[in-house]
Amino acid sequence: MNKWGVCLPVIILVAYLLQGCTVKQTIYLQDVRVDGPVNQPPLHLISGDENNIFTLSPKIYINTTRQVNGKVEGHSKVNKNGIYQLDTVFGNSGKFILKESGENKYDFTGNNLHWHMPDALAGVDFDLKLSRVFSFFGSFNYSHIDQQDLFSGAAGFGINSRKPHYGSRFDFGVMWHNLNNEISSAVVTTTSQLFGSSQQSVMLYKDYGKYSTYNFFANWTLNSINSSLPFDYYFGVGVFGQTIYDYVPSQIDMGDYLSNVLISPEPMKETPVYLMLMLGVYKNLDDNNRISCGVRLIKETQIENLSKSTYLFPTVQWDMSF
User: Fold this and answer.
1) pTM for this prediction
2) Where is mean pLDDT largest: 79-93, 219-233, 251-265?
């Protein structure tokens, strides 16, 4: 092989490397608004006629919290006034671009999550006995906020236990829900030449839309049966998650100067985990009808700086068995 046969591949490789570049993108989650309820598992009590195999349960949960603010991960650094400062510069492409200011030296300490909740959540549950021990259940819920209709629900299986003076029920399954999101983000793109300078540009995004997802839950309920009191009582505990966003920027804010293409970004996701305590009383009207009233205390365990992390929900439910 002559010397050109050896040198030519080396020359081509060197030329490629000299022209090559790397592109790095970082997504910052600047502000998140969420409209929608805290979704909740259904309530199932063990009482009434043991021969009933199907129960239909209209319900309403009253929300005593209208808005909470907190901090979610992913915000950019900010200037001394807590603002993400951008400069307008003349880029290599001959166009004006946005670039991060050198004043952004400080960690963001404010709140970038704002969750608005509806006044109430109404719905209907059904429960179908598959045997004396196992049941299949489902639920459908409705709420309304800011002229938007939102729907949610659940489905799963229950394990029943009945004794002479008490009953217990363990439920597990999947909850799904709709939420409205308004999310502002910044995408920083840094293009670096292998042998040369690098260039940075910033794009601002603002995305609106309805978000749907599902999460798992489990809860256990214990209730008295035919107590000597005017009413029977129930007690329950549970745990569940609720994803409030799973986000990739898509809608460019029209105030920007230059369009960039996102390169396979990883979604930004937030799934708070809740602990639930249920307390209440119920009254059997007859063997086929039961009404229950109670409260639910729900504790959020993960979001930082929440203005309120424990929520109180008065509840009313009417069970019709067949």
Assistant:
1) 0.86
2) 219-233
